């Protein structure tokens, strides 16, 4: 296992080095928006090791219908991941499927592709509870259940609900709460199905335009909907939303579509306009190393802007709309899953 991890880290390092010029352009863009971030912060960020994972799946197995088989063989989703924990010192070692209190998964089966992110609610730390444990278990359960024989590729809400039930049934209670966004792409139909709870989310870019995006679910400002498992006797004092609260969306994907699935550490700091500017050129890319450069850029831009006290972030603008005085970026864990749909 150690040898495997060492090889993986070397591959990651090579990919990051090949991306240097590309990332320099993205960093310059972020620098223009956040002129006061400063060279010290930039230098520190550039030595952070953003942990990445790339996957490209091949053609699917044949079905009884020749036309369906041909469509499946042509259709594939290239997906890569990048992110940063909010506190590098608290999370100095990368764990698969985790960036700080954020968690994620991606899976590929004969039925569908499945992707998900979850953002553990940090307030639980005040109660001595690890906020990331809930989100990690939830996403790992989603990944495992997506490989089950009875997995329904068109029902991400059911996948999320089963994972949540699995969490609640553990003999050793897993306490906490998190937002969650789970996507499935049905191989045969090419339809993307989404189930979203809270303020993580996704958007699809087609020909330089956002054609589909999730909407935040908030009880009130900065208090998103969340799946929760509170300590015994605390149910009345905690927000506890169920999988039935999930906002459902579906979209027929087209070749060249770019899909970004991310936690609020991205959306609170990077505007949709900037995401369009950075990601639109990625349309049609089927090389995971090339696509990784775009994911790295989004994560790095989000990180830079989140730490700039003089940047008018989407979060601070939204806060002022709610008569809350706020300025600058919003430091947070950052998770980006970037996918390119090829047919």
TrEMBL record:
Keyword Membrane among UniProt keywords: no
UniProt-listed InterPro entries: PPM-type-like_dom_sf, PPM-type_phosphatase-like_dom, PPTC7
Keywords associated with the record: Hydrolase, Magnesium, Manganese, Metal-binding, Protein phosphatase
Keyword rRNA processing: no
Coiled coil: none
Cofactor(s) required, per the database record: Mg(2+); Mn(2+)
Pfam family name, one: PP2C_2
Record-listed E.C. numbers: 3.1.3.16
Reaction catalyzed: O-phospho-L-threonyl-[protein] + H2O = L-threonyl-[protein] + phosphate; O-phospho-L-seryl-[protein] + H2O = L-seryl-[protein] + phosphate
Domain PPM-type phosphatase residue range list: 81-341
Gene Ontology CC entries for this record: mitochondrion
Domain of life from the UniProt record: Eukaryota
Family matches, as PROSITE patterns: PPM_2
Gene Ontology terms, MF aspect: metal ion binding; protein serine/threonine phosphatase activity
Recorded family membership: Belongs to the PP2C family.
Protein name: Protein phosphatase
């Amino acid at each position: 296992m150690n040898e495997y991890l060492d090889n993986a880290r070397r591959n990651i390092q090579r990919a990051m080095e090949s991306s240097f010029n590309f990332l320099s352009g993205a960093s310059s863009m972020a620098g223009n928006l956040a002129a006061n971030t400063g060279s010290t912060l930039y230098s520190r960020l550039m030595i952070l090791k953003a942990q990445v994972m790339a996957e490209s799946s091949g053609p699917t197995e044949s079905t009884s219908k020749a036309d369906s088989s041909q469509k499946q063989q042509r259709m594939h989703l290239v997906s890569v991941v990048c992110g940063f924990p909010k506190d590098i010192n608290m999370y100095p070692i990368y764990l698969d499927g985790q960036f700080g209190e954020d968690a994620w998964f991606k899976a590929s089966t004969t039925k569908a592709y499945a992707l998900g992110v979850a953002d553990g609610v940090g307030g639980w730390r005040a109660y001595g509870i690890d906020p990331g444990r809930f989100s990690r278990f939830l996403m790992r359960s989603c990944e495992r259940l997506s490989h089950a024989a009875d997995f329904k590729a068109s029902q991400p809400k059911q996948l999320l609900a089963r994972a949540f039930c699995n969490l609640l049934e553990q003999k050793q209670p897993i306490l906490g709460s998190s937002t969650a966004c789970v996507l499935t792409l049905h191989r045969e139909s090419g339809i993307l199905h989404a189930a979203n709870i809270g303020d993580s989310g996704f958007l699809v870019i087609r020909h330089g335009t956002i054609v589909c995006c999730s909407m935040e679910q908030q009880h009130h400002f900065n208090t998103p909907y969340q799946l929760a498992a509170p300590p015994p006797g605390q149910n009345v004092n905690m927000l506890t939303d169920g999988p039935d609260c999930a906002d459902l969306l579906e979209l027929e994907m087209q070749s060249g579509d770019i899909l970004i699935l991310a936690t609020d550490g991205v959306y609170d700091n990077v505007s949709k306009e900037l995401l369009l500017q950075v990601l639109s050129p990625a349309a049609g890319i089927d090389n995971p190393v090339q696509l990784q450069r775009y994911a790295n850029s989004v994560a790095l831009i989000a990180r830079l802007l989140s730490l700039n006290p003089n940047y008018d972030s989407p979060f601070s603008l939204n806060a002022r709309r709610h008569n809350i005085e706020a300025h600058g970026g919003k430091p947070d864990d950052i998770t980006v899953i970037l996918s390119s749909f090829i047919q």
